[in-house]
Write a structure and sequence with these properties.
565 residues; elongated; alpha/beta; six-stranded parallel β-sheet; Rossmann fold; Helix Hairpins
């Protein structure tokens, strides 16, 4: 049913199509005159042979011969009639088998395809479009961001310069528009004045161009840009970027925060008024081997363990949950309570491998950021790097391939408390993770993942913790959009908060089935400005209450589907 409106809307859209319609009508007129002429001549020739046929039969014979169907039920017996049949047949081949299909494709099928393509890849958004997110690049970060925006039912558009690429993305379910990302007219057509955010994750130079271009049209719309080089931050800020993110720096600092050794205090990942959410590895502490009830963390320090991460699997803990060396505890409490926890358990990390260097595999931007963080915290380290040009300080570098055992021995593989794998190639990271795990079953291995789909593979290869570059970037952008200051817990674990859905108002947490339906945990409720940490499960959820939850990204999606927003 959509075929004909698409054609009609296209056919009357421009002067060129109107001209084409006139040519099409002329073609049909010529074809009609030709068929009529052949039908009249048919009657005269048949009468000359002593045969009589109706006018309908004449048209029937003409169309059968011209279309080359040739039923053979009506034929001429004399040479003149047969010569006429040959003429009708040849003209039919030209008009019906060549010109008519070409005409159909040019004036009907082609316009429909073009109309459908324009609908799939528009060059302009409707005037009423508002509160949408404009993205200038489709990469791993924006791909992860789009998943999050879909969960929260936020509108977005990705600007793509290549038409065919735009069609490919549309076919995968991505909302795209065609345009030049450095053209002010493109952003005017994307309704930038009504947008909630512009996201530029291109090169530093192009991000600067995009920022200046958008600022020509609007000085108020928020613009978030990424920067690979530290020297680009000031330039992008001067161009008008609302926030410049150095994702490699954020990733490096996050990976460093997970490392056992030095100052290993609980890593804060979210703050909501007096509530602090933090994560801390259990490896190297007396907590390993105990159940949650036996740890007595809540009784002794007031912190609540709201989740435990074990090699790629997030668990909602029970009193009988066992804490092992791979466990990462997600803690909720006040600043005072978390400080009390750190005063005791960070000591074990400091002493467990005092003086032994941590191995950093890869001296690129992420590896160097980790090294800078270690220097700030006083953690000894060695960087394994194949490229001698990247070796800046000889005392901290081991030149060679991390897959070579002799190189690893130079980096003190036998005593190193941890190894961080920072390559931008996931296949390399998986290979090295498996190799290091076979050499040191007791070592803490932390790896970077560039694509979310490789996180679980890295865990199977033996990584204790994995941080996804794309999820980290998407989460940082979304938090900026929501005006929040929340970091992403590694491997996709998320802290999110929202107004209590109508479907949950009046229900108690015990009856809400939030854990069963979404595998998320409500860690706090805020009502009338008062925060209730670890709320009583038998108190009803009040109208306009703010819920703070912890769960995986899949759990967040399940929550939004089950209870709405």
């Amino acid at each position: 049913m959509k075929f004909y409106p698409s054609i009609l809307s296209y056919l009357f859209d421009s002067k060129s199509t109107k001209r084409n319609i006139r040519l099409l009508l002329k073609f049909l007129l010529v074809l009609g005159i030709l068929v009529s002429t052949y039908s009249i001549i048919f009657h005269f020739l048949m009468a000359a042979e002593g045969k009589e046929h109706s006018w309908i039969t004449g048209f029937y014979w003409t169309l059968v011969v011209m279309s080359t169907l040739g039923f053979g039920d009506i034929t001429f017996t004399e040479d003149l009639g047969r010569a006429f049949s040959i003429l009708v047949l040849l003209s039919g081949v030209v008009f019906l088998l060549i010109l008519f299909p070409f005409t159909f494709i040019k004036f009907f099928f082609g316009p429909w395809i073009e109309a459908e393509s324009k609908k799939r890849t528009p060059r302009e958004l409707p005037p009423e479009t508002e509160n949408h997110i404009i993205m200038t690049c489709y990469d791993s970060v924006t791909r992860a961001l789009i998943e999050k925006l879909n969960n929260y039912k936020r509108d977005y558009i990705v600007i793509v310069e290549d038409f065919q690429r735009a069609l490919e993305l549309y076919d995968t379910g991505i909302r795209v528009a065609v345009g030049s990302i450095d053209d002010p007219e493109t952003y005017r057509k994307m309704r930038v004045d009504n947008a909630a955010l512009v996201v530029a994750t291109n090169s530093d130079e192009m991000n600067t161009n995009i920022t200046f271009t958008v600022r020509e049209l609007n000085e108020r719309v928020p613009i978030i840009t990424t920067a690979d080089s530290p020297y680009s931050v000031d330039i992008l800020n001067m161009a008008g970027s609302s926030r410049v993110m150095r994702l490699y720096d954020i990733l490096g600092r996050s990976l460093a925060g997970w490392t056992m050794g030095g100052d290993c205090s609980a890593n804060v990942i979210g703050r909501f008024d007096d509530l602090i959410i933090a994560e801390t590895p259990a490896i190297g502490t007396p907590l390993v081997g105990k159940t949650l009830a036996e740890s007595k963390l809540r009784e002794n320090y007031g912190v609540t363990v709201v989740g435990i991460w074990k090699r790629g699997k997030f668990e909602i803990p029970t009193p009988e949950t066992l804490i092992d060396r791979t466990s990462v505890l997600v803690l909720a409490g006040s600043e005072k309570q978390l400080t009390a926890y750190d005063d005791v358990y960070s000591f074990y990390h400091i002493c467990s491998h005092a003086g032994d260097p941590v191995i950093i595999i890869g001296g690129g931007r992420v590896g160097q950021t980790i090294a800078d963080r270690f220097q700030e915290r006083g953690i000894p380290y060695l960087i394994i790097e194949k490229n001698p040009r990247k070796a800046q300080e000889k005392g901290h570098y081991v030149l060679g391939d991390a897959a070579d055992i002799s190189t690893l021995k130079k980096a003190w593989i036998e005593k190193a408390p941890a190894a961080l794998i920072t390559s931008h190639d996931d296949a390399t990271n998986i290979y090295l993770t498996k190799y290091l795990r076979s050499l040191r079953p007791d070592m803490q291995i932390i790896s970077r993942a560039n694509l979310d789909r490789n996180v679980s593979t890295l865990h199977r290869a033996g990584a204790d913790f994995v941080m996804s570059y794309s999820s980290l970037g998407a989460n940082a952008i979304f938090n900026f959009l929501e005006n929040e200051d929340t970091l992403m817990l590694a491997e996709g674990l998320n802290i999110f908060h929202l107004r209590a859905p109508r479907s949950l108002e009046g229900k108690t947490l015990a009856r809400s089935r939030i854990r069963e339906e979404s595998e998320c945990t409500v860690i706090a409720l805020k009502v009338d400005g008062l925060m209730s940490i670890n709320p009583d499960p038998h108190i009803p959820i009040k109208e306009n209450a703010e819920m703070i939850l912890v769960g995986t990204y899949e759990g967040e999606r399940k929550f939004m589907r089950a209870f709405g927003s």
